[in-house]
Amino acid sequence: LQARREGVPSVRFDAAMAARAAERLALAARLRLALERGEFELHFQPIRDIGDGRIVSLEALIRWSPDNAGYVPPSQFIPLCEESGLIVPLGEWALAEAARCHGLLAERGRGEVAIAVNVSAVQFLSETLPQSLRALRETHALPRGALQIELTESAVLRSPESARTTMNELREQGVCISIDDFGTGFSSMAYLKDLPLDFLKVDRTFVAGVDSEERNAAICRALIELGHGLGLKIIAEGVESAEQLDWLRKHGCDQAQGYYFGAPGPLADLLRAW
Ligand code: C2E
Ligand code: MG
Ligand code: MG
Ligand code: MG
Description:
This is EAL domain-containing protein. By secondary structure, this protein is an alpha/beta fold.
């Protein structure tokens, strides 16, 4: 209290906080090393057209397997990478790996299937994204539509004007744009109306009870209607049952992904089971 009155910052820095900070620093350094050592990989989850069941795209989901001892889920390292800035080179790596994998798809006669890459706000707003994508498309001779990006509402809302500029450049290159986890952030109608988007991905928290809970059904019905009204396609995330899929089909949802169709896995496994 005395310190605050005298204008000295009154931050209390106790032993536990110091330990936590040290742990995070160590993990950030370890993640940097992991990128150098090539310990990250992409897994892929199919996204299917609800009408005909065909796989229309694959979502690329990053996996870290330190010392080949199982996978650490992205929720445990992506936020730290965003804080430390490692997300920019890591995101570049993910895009390059997705581009390489699209080449493998094309070799197997699946070149019409797009790969959707999650892009963090920091990376999206760094303004190097259109240039990186153009370089990758040239290096890997990717057709238009080969890559898509998934953004969260927060990435867009942080700076709607620069988001629009970047999106227009991506659109010109034939890169489609999805808003991920739609409905969980500050869903602003203003940006939806004005930005050049292609897909809304309805978050799985709403999809989970869509066939059994009226409140989730009401939200899903509204989001499908809203997206369609704006000329967007709707993708349902986290579909786990035939009942959920039936509900989504009846209500005009366009595409779906989830454990019902298959968990994310290595591209080789997916190609084998296709
Ligand atoms: P997301 O983009 O919303 O990805 C969907 C998440 O739902 C994935 O979790 C996926 O494994 C999981 N999922 C898919 N189907 C089902 C289902 O039927 N039920 C349930 N309960 N879950 C399902 P994952 O792989 O742990 O990724 C979590 C988040 O990490 C992603 O959410 C995305 O925000 C982020 N992330 C993943 N890869 C990358 C990346 O390369 N770059 C960036 N910036 N973020 C990434
Ligand atoms: Mg995603
Ligand atoms: Mg999502
Ligand atoms: Mg989600």
